Amino acid sequence: MRLFGSISTHHQPNSTTPFCSSSTISNSKSNLTSFQNNATITTNTTTSSTSLSSFNKSKLSWDRLKSGFEQCNSPKLGHKWMQYQGINHWEGLLDPLDDNLRREILRYGQFVEAAYKSFDFDPCSPTYATCRFPKNSLLTRCGLKNSGYKITKNLRATCGIRLPEWINKMYQLPHKQSSWIGYVAVCQDKEEIARLGRRDVVISLRGTSTCLEWLENLRATLTKIPNDMSNGSDHDNGGDDNCARAMVENGFLSLYVSKTTTNPSLQDMIREEITRIIQSYGDEPLSLTITGHSLGAALAILSAYDITTTIKNAPLVTVVSFGGPRVGNDVFRNQLEQSGTRILRIVNSDDVITRVPGFVAKDDDMASSGDVHVARLQSWFHKRVEDMQLVYADVGQELRLSSKESPYLTKGDVATCHDLKTYLQLVNGFVSSSCPYMNEMPEYQAEAWL
């Protein structure tokens, strides 16, 4: 979901918030200081003429941070690239957060930001809900000229909801049945391929931006995975619908598989392009990284499931998600794990979007209850929620951050806690769970797209 909000940088560290001394950082994170120095940002004191809230009174450009990344020497991953793509579930890399992994997370976050920046949000514009930039210059115009990647495919998502014509006339709602939602990019630069240790393919997906997409998000009940996306295990029950089957959120699935006579589905476009890329580069080391924010994070997980279960000879598929909602049930999660998909979810504890839709019910919680009446109540509630198709399961590995624990971020509202730039700010400063944030950080502000 694309929510508006920004972060104030004129905020002194909270004395009650634990953070690391410089000696602690230098001992546990030897490269962090040089990385921060290379990405140092100075405060822009120019007052913006646009004011959405008290958070918007002083603004810094995230573009400056990106220029700092381009100037610093990115580490060579080489033969260790599979570790950073999660082949071992990022064991030993998340707590404390490995510097190389931090850079990779921020790098993929920039691809998602480019998807936001390229989208035309103006409902009065004749090009509303399309991409503002040509494919061959999109990354350059979004500040990623030196990324080494080339966009090979624009992606669109189609909403399955059809509003009655009288509603459109009465409320004059801007609506687009099919909207540009992201792109596929392939690493083409020889030096970057050598640094990464393989040729990387990125699918970048933005969050919710149109009225119909918001309505799709509200369709929170679970529905069965279509047969053409299934890995076959769902049919081992002989067609018994009472047996457990992989299920996902209704609205997310609708956005992924819906199509019109003039617009293919997001599913069809991704399948076609990834199949073509595998045929072109399948004889060399290849990785597929799907990254997205909010709705884009949910669609990234659906895409990963679809690719690994339907495309032969698929490479290692990794999802890097920012602020993503829940997507499916425990059977869906188990099948994702069995397929070899690696998912890294970056979660802000203060972001409510990461705790919806539905409920996550854990059997061990009910079993550990000492009160039999409480246990029965929990079991009854679980059964009712399950009957309503609202029992979800979290997937993948989690990098948990917190706006409240960061001494350099104000305690923002729901929109600010969910903003992509908030996530990138938190990743940039995070050290470990026992010592969350360093006591010296480059000052910059996460600014909402207007």
TrEMBL record:
EC annotation from Swiss-Prot or TrEMBL: 3.1.1.32
Location relative to the cell: Plastid, Chloroplast
Primary localization class, coarse: plastid
Chain intervals for the UniProt region annotation (Disordered): 1-21
Enzyme class: hydrolase
GO-annotated molecular function: phospholipase A1 activity
Keyword Transit peptide tagged: yes
Biased composition (Polar residues): 1-20
Record has Chloroplast as a keyword: yes
Entry keyword set: Chloroplast, Hydrolase, Lipid degradation, Lipid metabolism, Plastid, Transit peptide
Gene3D superfamilies: alpha/beta hydrolase (3.40.50.1820)
Family in the record: Belongs to the AB hydrolase superfamily. Lipase family.
This protein's name: Dolichyl-diphosphooligosaccharide-protein glycosyltransferase subunit dad1
Organism: Stylosanthes scabra
Lineage, highest ranks first: Eukaryota, Viridiplantae, Streptophyta, Embryophyta, Tracheophyta
Gene: DAD1_2
